[in-house]
């Protein structure tokens, strides 16, 4: 079986890292796999980018179109938008190539236009990394238009001007006539697909993002802290996000509130933040803060998880963040809110702690609960590693993808015969 993946980038961002890992795991399992991207950074022969100056120029322009349209049209909606307007030549390259199955990842208007997707004639499996596929132009939303359909009468009051989301959603409904095989890393996102006005009735299955458990593994904590220059004798609470504190979905403000509550429970504690450099005006949570910045290689990230005592994911909305799976694989417990895809990572009081959604006092209680008892913490670390091996390892996940590829091929065969 020959799989061609499409993702905007090969290494930049959570969806890219997930697609890259699936691609390499397939190669290790003896399948042929190729990762097609608009921005390639890995310089690997199995990763291919756009050919020619004009196609590279279009690839560079696409990410700016959504922001430009949102600004010019004054929609009043600040979230990331991808109206998926500019066409590409990827469908032609895919259709004329030797792929048996096309595996889409984060294309979301940055790589293909909406009509482009309908032009692909190969069997398709699409792993969703956010809500864009069944929404309008937005990647995440808290309103219910994706359930009801984007009508004139149900537009949120905070939006104004041209209804970019309704226009984008109607284009998807017009062009996407053939149901695709959808995979979601979390149960929450699969339920969203089933409840959506656009994709309800489409085949969907839950397949978590895989991880190489031999690469991501427990290491000596003292060594990890020494190599990273972190203090050796104090509890370390880890928070990571590519957008740091700028993305309200990631809930850094909620973590700061929880740390304020922790003053009543713990005297010694340091916060470690990765994914962003120190801001010009850093917050003062009352505990020392270490800003690690962007870590681009797996070895440094693995050391960081091992240096920490607990990873906190205070997200308001999240799918199946790679940070949580990576942390478990390194044997580091996770504290998160009981919302969206986070319960798929954290087993309450076994691999970490699930706090009541957006209750910062309970989030503080969870951090304290993980840290204060050494024997309990040791057991949490053992269970975290075991959960990663049994639920997220490549040998568990890749056969599930192979089965989904085969089902997509069979459905394509029935569709062609009909």
TrEMBL record:
It holds the Pfam family Glyco_transf_4. It comes from the Bacteria. GO terms for molecular function: glycosyltransferase activity. InterPro entries: Glyco_trans_4-like_N. Keywords: Transferase. SUPFAM superfamilies: UDP-Glycosyltransferase/glycogen phosphorylase (SSF53756). Residues 13-215 form the Glycosyltransferase subfamily 4-like N-terminal domain. This is Glycosyltransferase. It comes from Dissulfurirhabdus thermomarina.
């Amino acid at each position: 079986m020959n799989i061609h993946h499409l993702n905007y980038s090969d290494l930049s961002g959570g969806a890219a890292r997930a697609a890259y890992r699936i691609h390499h795991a397939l190669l290790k399992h003896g399948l042929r796999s190729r990762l097609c991207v608009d921005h390639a950074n890995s310089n690997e022969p199995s990763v291919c980018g756009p050919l020619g100056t004009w196609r590279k120029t279009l690839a560079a322009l696409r990410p700016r179109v959504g922001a430009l349209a949102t600004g010019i049209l004054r929609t009043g909606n600040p979230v990331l938008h991808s109206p998926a307007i500019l066409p590409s030549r990827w469908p032609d390259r895919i259709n004329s190539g030797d792929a048996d199955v096309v595996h889409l990842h984060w294309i979301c208007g940055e790589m293909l236009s909406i009509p482009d997707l309908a032009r692909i004639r190969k069997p398709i499996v699409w792993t969703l990394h956010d809500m864009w596929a069944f929404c309008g132009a937005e990647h995440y939303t808290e309103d219910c238009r994706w359930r009801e359909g984007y009508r004139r009468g149900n537009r949120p009051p905070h939006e104004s001007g041209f209804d970019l989301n309704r226009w984008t959603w109607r284009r998807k409904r017009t062009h996407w006539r053939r149901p695709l095989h959808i995979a979601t890393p979390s149960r929450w996102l699969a339920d969203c697909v089933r409840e959506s006005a656009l994709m309800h009735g489409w085949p969907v299955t839950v397949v978590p993002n895989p991880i190489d458990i031999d690469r991501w593994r427990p290491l000596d904590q003292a060594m990890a802290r020494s190599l990273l220059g972190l203090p050796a004798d104090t509890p370390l609470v880890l928070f990571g996000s590519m957008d740091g504190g700028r993305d309200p979905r990631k809930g850094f403000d909620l973590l700061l509130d929880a740390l304020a509550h922790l003053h009543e429970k713990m005297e010694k504690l340091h916060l470690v933040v990765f994914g962003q450099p120190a801001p010009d005006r850093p917050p003062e949570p009352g505990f020392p803060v270490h800003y690690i910045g962007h870590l681009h290689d797996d070895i440094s990230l693995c050391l960081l998880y091992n240096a920490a005592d607990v990873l906190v994911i205070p997200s308001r909305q999240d799918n199946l963040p790679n940070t949580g799976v990576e942390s478990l694989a390194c044997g580091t417990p996770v504290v998160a809110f009981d919302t969206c895809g986070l319960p798929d990572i954290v087993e309450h009081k076994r691999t970490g702690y699930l706090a009541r959604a957006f209750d910062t006092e309970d989030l503080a209680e969870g951090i304290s609960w993980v840290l204060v008892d050494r024997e309990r913490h040791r057991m949490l670390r053992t269970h975290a590693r075991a959960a990663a091996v049994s639920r997220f390892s490549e040998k568990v996940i890749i056969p599930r993808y192979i089965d989904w590829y085969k089902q997509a091929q069979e459905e394509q065969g029935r569709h062609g015969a009909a």
